[in-house]
Design a protein that fits this description.
alpha/beta, Rossmann fold, UDP-galactose 4-epimerase, domain 1, 2 domains, seven-stranded parallel beta sheet, 10 helices, NAD(P)-bd_dom_sf
Length: 315
């Protein structure tokens, strides 16, 4: 259990997931500090949060940011799954190398507790059966997935050698407000934007493969529930436990927007996982957490946020 004065450092905390973790941590009474190269895209600095501008790869900046913190949540990564195949070397040099340098600083207890955000959608590869449990063999098929798994293994090694306490989370595909609908990652906000703007949606493959999607506020609540249950050096899936196809998601979004898009089908990419649904039994058994936002309600909240954001940006 945490102490009242716990201070949490979010590395890469100004991104989509980090912004919701900030909200949940503050709601639970934690002190929050953020280390990031960039400010949040969709809102101003949050009152009560300390911000340190810089990269965790800069060890001087990292040591400054870590000072006085009890827990570190690592969210930063140099690529996204869709671009990692073009530059696999970046995964090793920029992401894995910087991560190893970071935790190497902590072996003498600069900070003793780490939450590492891995990827439930990438580290398992194409699973042999569904749903996927944490004990399943990890067989990533993309440089992004390989890098995430490597960082898990390095964290385990440093824990074994130097006693670092950790939690590894493998979330499914998060969605919700503040996800960049103009970006390269996150099919749900991108589909919303393209349908609203009458743009053609490109689907890799036939669109029938199913994946697991989770509302981002539920994800943030899950992570904080694990922190408050103690650092047990374990891996946890965080998911909805329900698989959905891209075609069904387009139907859902079209119904909300009141119009249908043009769809073009292009050849499936070899590094895309075909079907994956994660079991969240392990976290439910440990903390009692279950997702509370239905997929449909999450879509509606996302739609309202996109509409408001687009309206405000046009003023």
């Amino acid at each position: 259990m945490r102490q009242e004065a716990s201070r949490v450092l979010l590395v890469g905390g100004n991104g989509f997931i980090g912004s919701h973790l900030i909200d949940e941590l503050l709601r639970k009474g934690y002190s929050v500090r953020v280390l990031d190269r960039n400010p949040e895209i969709f809102r101003k600095a949050v009152p009560g949060v300390e911000y340190v501008t810089g990269s965790f790869a800069d060890l001087f900046t990292l040591r400054e940011a870590v000072e006085g913190c009890d827990i570190l949540i690592h969210l930063a990564h140099s690529t996204v799954p869709s671009t990692s195949l073009n530059h696999p070397e970046e995964e090793v040099l920029a992401s894995v190398g910087a991560f190893v340098n970071m935790i190497n600083c902590f072996k003498h207890k600069a900070i003793g507790k780490i939450v590492y955000f891995s990827s439930g959608g990438a580290v398992y590869g194409n699973p042999e059966s569904l749903p996927v449990f944490e004990e399943a063999r990890a067989k990533p098929i993309s440089p992004y997935g390989v890098a995430k798994l490597m960082m898990e293994k390095y964290l385990y090694m440093f824990s074994y050698l130097y006693g670092l306490e950790y939690i590894i989370v493998r979330p499914s595909n998060p969605f919700g407000p503040r996800q960049n609908y103009m970006g390269e990652q996150g099919v749900i906000p991108i589909f919303f934007r393209k349908i609203l703007d009458d743009e053609t949606i490109s689907i890799w493959g036939d669109g029938k493969g199913t994946k697991d999607y989770l509302y981002v506020e539920d994800l943030a609540g899950a992570v904080v529930s694990l922190i408050e249950s103690g650092f047990d050096k374990s891996i946890y899936n965080i998911s909805s436990g329900i698989g959905r196809s891209l075609l069904s998601i387009i139907d859902n979004i079209s119904n909300i927007c009141g119009k249908r898009p043009n769809i073009e089908f292009v050849a499936k990419r070899t590094h895309d996982v075909s079907n994956i649904t994660l079991s969240f039994d392990k976290i439910r058994n440990r903390t009692g957490w279950v997702p509370t936002t239905t997929f449909e309600d999450g879509l509606i909240q996302t739609f309202k946020w996109i509409q408001n954001t687009k309206s405000n940006m046009s003023k």
